[in-house]
Amino acid sequence: MSPKSTSSAAFQGELGAFSHAAAQKLLGRKIRALPCQSFRDVFLALASGKAATAVIPIENTLHGSVHENYDHLLEFGFHVIGETSLRISHQLIAMPGVRFRDVHRVFSHPVALNQCQRFFQKHKRIEAVPFYDTAGSVKMLKDEQPPSAAAIASETASKIYGGIILKRNIEDDPQNFTRFFLLSKQDSSRKNTRGQSKTALVFSVANHPGSLFKVLACFALRDITLTKIESRPLRGKPWEYMFYVDFLGSTEDQRTKNALANLAELAQFFKILGSYRPTP
Amino acid sequence: MSPKSTSSAAFQGELGAFSHAAAQKLLGRKIRALPCQSFRDVFLALASGKAATAVIPIENTLHGSVHENYDHLLEFGFHVIGETSLRISHQLIAMPGVRFRDVHRVFSHPVALNQCQRFFQKHKRIEAVPFYDTAGSVKMLKDEQPPSAAAIASETASKIYGGIILKRNIEDDPQNFTRFFLLSKQDSSRKNTRGQSKTALVFSVANHPGSLFKVLACFALRDITLTKIESRPLRGKPWEYMFYVDFLGSTEDQRTKNALANLAELAQFFKILGSYRPTP
To answer: Buried-most residue among A136, B131, B161, B181 (CB within 10 A)?
Structure first.
């Protein structure tokens, strides 16, 4: 890998997207950012070597797991080498010179607009205008300078496009967090043998009562703490499921090795997505 | 309850939203529809008696569980009395007289636009324009008759607003399903003692290794089949979780009663959301 690409990260959305902020938290502010249109494009950028790493949202406290990204992880076979969580806080952003009392239209992604309902109820003169992307709406303010307009996006987006934050943290629910995975083509689990490692795992079991219970025994018998478990119906196979499990420990720990050997006896399919140390 | 309100259903979105289609599938086409702006408004409509039932999305095959609706279910304490799944298929809809070759702009919710990427790649003359709602974009075509315009929404929305379907099923992924719950203030589990009942349950357990394993033993020891399990971190309580579990059987079955008595010994908190017979 060339030194140039070592610190690059692909993510979905424009510069300043929440995934971009997560990439900076995971890899530092000097990261070379590679914005992509779709999640699939993010994976393709990593596959082709255009980016050395990729940052994807995997779970949100309000909206649940991003199944699409689990699908891409299984298809592409990349390794999870890091994890972090971001609070999704929405800023009301305008270009310099625009005062709050001048604002009559606010552009953003409908999900973000919907997370700021109280703001729009309080300021009835302001119209919420749907846009394709949160950070993209700030970019549009900069490029097109529409009158009386503001956008809702991250503080990172405001900085990147030279915006001014008119109102901070206008989201209804302050407990809105997204968890992100950092991906690489290289496995990093051997580097994570010390400290609070986590491991992410996907498996499926035969469809009969108690089969999940037996799989969980592999972990419970060894006092391994699960931090996530989720079933997901398999496409086109009613009553069959894929399971997502995260647990404390590294694949380099002996007890994890024992648990996984045990799991291999019971599961129809299993794949370790990666062992890593989370970034708080 | 007045006879007038018995067959009414509140749901989020405009008339013709996918939740409206789910309400028709659950309750029949003659249902009195009560469109609401937000999920919270849906619950408030049921609480105030404006609607006799409510229909909410609870899980999507691509986007995961709708945690927000689990939160509202716990807050409002309503009963789940039905369930159905809908395939989310997107139709390209225009007003009568508009031909496909005339279409240069397509309005819809960005999530729907994003699920039809191949359509836009194939037809590069057509611009995707974000709108606040799928069905609402068809309503807008009807009300404002913008030139060269179409919308992406459900077949139900096309029928309601007098649209013409120009292209059918333009979604990239045909395996996009949403599961909906039907809610009522009245518990219906006593009516569901025969046939393939399902029960939805929420619980939390103390945070130590193996506690989930013990809870699952309550079901596994009685050969009760789980159809969903999902952990969700508790807000503001790191390392503590709420679990969502669905299983086959009714709360009226003796073995379910035994399992729940056993669960009551082990769980910190548990709440039965409802027993019901799914609508295929």
So the answer is: B181
Nearest CB to A61 within list B117, B175, B235: B235
CATH no. for residue B102? Answer: 3.40.190.10
Do B147 and B49 lie in one domain? The reply is no
Contact B68 A67 (CB under 8 A): no
Of B67, B175, B236, the CB nearest to A64: B67
Can A243 be counted among the known catalytic residues? no
Kindly name the residue from B84, B178, B199, B251 that is annotated as catalytic.
B178
Q: What is the mean pLDDT of each run of 10 residues along chain B (280 residues)?
A: 62 95 94 94 97 95 87 95 94 97 95 91 94 94 96 96 97 90 87 77 86 91 91 71 92 94 93 94
Interface of B with A in 183-222 (CB under 8 A): 208-210, 212-213, 216-217, 219-220
Q: Does A139 touch chain B (CB under 8 A)?
A: no
Same domain membership, residue B23 and residue B156:
no
Question: Is B256 assigned a catalytic role?
Answer: no
- pTM, whole model, 2 decimals? 0.87
* pLDDT tens column, A196-253: 899 999 999 887 778 889 999 999 999 998 989 998 877 666 567 889 999 999 999 9
Note whether A244 and A142 are same-domain residues: no
B54 lies in a domain?
Answer: yes
Put simply, the answer to whether A227 touches B239 (Cβ < 8 Å) is: yes
Name the domain count of chain A.
3
A63 touches chain B (CB under 8 A): yes
Domain residues for the domain of B113 are 91-167
- State ipTM: 0.81
- Cβ separation of B231 and A229 shorter than 8 Å? yes
Give the per-residue SS3 of chain A: CCHHHHCEEEEECCCCCHHHHHHHHHHCCCCEEEEECCHHHHHHHHHHCCCCEEEEEEEECCCEECHHHHHHHHHHCCEEEEEEEEECCCEEEECCCCCHHHCCEEEECHHHHHCCHHHHHHCCCCEEEECCCHHHHHHHHHHHCCCCEEEEECHHHHHHCCCEEEECCCCCCCCCEEEEEEEECCCCHHHCCCCCCEEEEEEECCCCCCHHHHHHHHHHCCCCCEEEEEEEEECCEEEEEEEEEEEECCCCCHHHHHHHHHHHHHCCEEEEEEEECCEC
Which of A84, A178, A251, A256 is an active site residue?
A: A178
A180 and A43 inside one domain: yes
Same domain, B60 and B101: no
